[in-house]
């Protein structure tokens, strides 16, 4: 099965590098021409050369792949699916986004299934930085699909020598792991940016993971999934490295510093969506709630810290 990556951001470009024989679609025609000419995506992933076997295009009609990897921001996916439904529907769609749709309060596979009923949909997620994948460094990810046969097919087709995929049929758990860890990463960045220390970050990660588990259970996910690559693994990576955009964003908030406004921070939208979802489902998620409140200017970081530390003492 041929593969195409729709979205020439850092992660989409990295996947093209890892897979080798693939088509890479860029929304912007000038950007596509620049990548095709230079064999580099200097705007999104500098210092990495695209294999000659990767074809770059701006024209969706030239895409002849059966498997499409949707490497685009979560909040843009629904509009893209609606705009290109006729082209996308007959193919296998693999979401590479991590987040919760702010209007529908569902994950990327859910968005695909709602927009294009009957389409084969899956999710590629887990602990990974685009630069590591592009440079061929060993990386393990989760491929999740409700249909076990589809998950196995995609696992075989998308795994490479250095990109190892583990399959899973718990799509809800995989979606939640990838989405929620970004919210906790923002909070962890706030902790470090505000100078609260490594011990505080470790405590926040542990309690944040407990929040992730609570919501997962409430939505019918398997707790084992959250303990795997798409949950715990991604949480550790994202909360512990300044390569993470969500973590850097949190650090900027904690230090009251500027942040690049053009950088996509999936966790910001997800925090707001999940805070609403948790409230509707009656799930206690204090860290997520505080992150959303800080982002919306309802609380200062000092007030959020005080509110969390003033919570009643309880069993772990």
From TrEMBL:
EC number: 1.1.1.94
InterPro entries assigned to the protein according to its UniProt record, in alphabetical order: 6-PGluconate_DH-like_C_sf, 6PGD_dom2, G3P_DH_NAD-dep, G3P_DH_NAD-dep_C, G3P_DH_NAD-dep_N, NAD(P)-bd_dom_sf
Primary location class: cytoplasm
Top-level taxon of origin: Bacteria
Entry's localization field: Cytoplasm
Chain positions recorded as NADPH binding sites: 11, 27, 98, 130, 245, 266
Family: Belongs to the NAD-dependent glycerol-3-phosphate dehydrogenase family.
Known function: Catalyzes the reduction of the glycolytic intermediate dihydroxyacetone phosphate (DHAP) to sn-glycerol 3-phosphate (G3P), the key precursor for phospholipid synthesis.
Protein name: Glycerol-3-phosphate dehydrogenase [NAD(P)+]
Organism, as annotated: Roseinatronobacter domitianus
